[in-house]
């Protein structure tokens, strides 16, 4: 599939291993880099995993590998920015593969665009998300509801955002989330009397992300490098 300027939404379902999702992202990213594939938005739920980004401190995983194994949680080092985070069932993970240079996006602007998409998604369910000065991600009344971390290779982004819908919140007690010890983590299930399903949130995020991306495209000319 050649790059025709369109973004393809791909649903990978539940229980996706971190290694499998990372391999898919890298393969699509490489194809986008050389114009052999469309940009993509992967939507999924991971099997329980703690990931360590490029800035991670091992001490922010506060239980042993043996304890993680007993709980069915794997540990994975990765190449996104940021510290330690958790992914698992009940959490929507969105991995956009976007050619930033062709869309006139800096990394900083792209991070803000991801936050805008999450904030727009939350608004559809009556939740007021916000940015917190000095931190990446989306927050509700001082508690983080969505983590964001990306990597860029040859101007193409991968990794992305994770929105807590109805995950097992006890799993965040295994880590210092994103290395931030004094800020709690929350979920839509905790914030709403009747939380939406992960699939419903995925539908919303796909809409809001594409809207944010298209509005950005209208703001700047889209330079094509081929």
CATH superfamily: Bira Bifunctional Protein, Domain 2
Written as H for each helix and E for each strand, in order along the chain, the element string is EHEEHEEEHEEEHH
What separation lies between the terminal Cα atoms?
16 Å
Beta-strand content estimate: 25-35%
CATH topology: BirA Bifunctional Protein, domain 2
Number of distinct beta strands: 9
Low-confidence stretches: 221-226
| Secondary structural class | alpha+beta
Which characteristics define this entry?
BirA Bifunctional Protein, domain 2; 5 helices; 27% strand; disordered C terminus; 9 strands; three-stranded mixed sheet; single chain; 226 residues; six-stranded mixed sheet; 29% helix; alpha+beta
Topology:
Elements lengths: L6 E10 L1 H16 L5 E8 L2 E4 L12 H7 L2 E4 L6 E4 L3 E7 L9 H17 L14 E3 L2 E11 L2 E9 L23 H4 L6 H22 L7
Parallel strand pairs: 1-2, 3-4
Antiparallel strand pairs: 2-6, 3-5, 6-9, 7-8, 8-9
Characterise this structure.
- The protein is an alpha+beta fold.
- The chain has one domain (7-219): BirA Bifunctional Protein, domain 2 (2-Layer Sandwich).
- The protein has helices at residues 18-33, 65-71, 107-123, 188-191, 198-219; strands at residues 7-16, 39-46, 49-52, 74-77, 84-87, 91-97, 138-140, 143-153, 156-164.
- Helix 3 crosses helix 5 (198-219).
């Amino acid at each position: 599939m050649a790059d025709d300027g369109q973004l393809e939404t791909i649903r990978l379902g539940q229980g996706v291993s971190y290694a499998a999702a990372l391999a898919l992202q890298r393969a699509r990213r490489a194809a986008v880099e050389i114009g052999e594939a469309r940009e993509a938005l992967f939507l999924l739920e991971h099997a329980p995993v703690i990931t360590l980004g490029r800035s991670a401190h091992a001490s922010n995983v506060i239980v042993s590998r043996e304890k993680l194994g007993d709980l069915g949680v794997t540990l994975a080092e990765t190449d996104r920015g940021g510290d330690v985070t958790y992914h698992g069932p009940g959490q929507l993970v969105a991995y956009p593969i976007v050619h930033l240079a062709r869309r006139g996006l800096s990394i900083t602007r792209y991070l803000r665009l991801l936050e805008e998409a999450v904030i727009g998604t939350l608004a559809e369910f009556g939740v007021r998300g916000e940015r917190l000065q000095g931190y990446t991600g989306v927050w509700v009344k001082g508690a983080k509801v969505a983590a964001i971390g990306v990597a860029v290779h040859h101007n193409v982004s991968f990794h992305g955002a994770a929105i807590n819908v109805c995950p097992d919140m006890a799993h965040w007690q295994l880590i210092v989330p994103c290395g931030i010890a004094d800020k709690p983590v929350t979920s839509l299930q905790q914030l709403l009397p009747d939380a939406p399903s992960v699939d419903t949130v995925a539908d919303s995020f796909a809409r809001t992300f594409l809207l944010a991306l298209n509005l950005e495209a209208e703001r700047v000319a889209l330079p094509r490098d081929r």
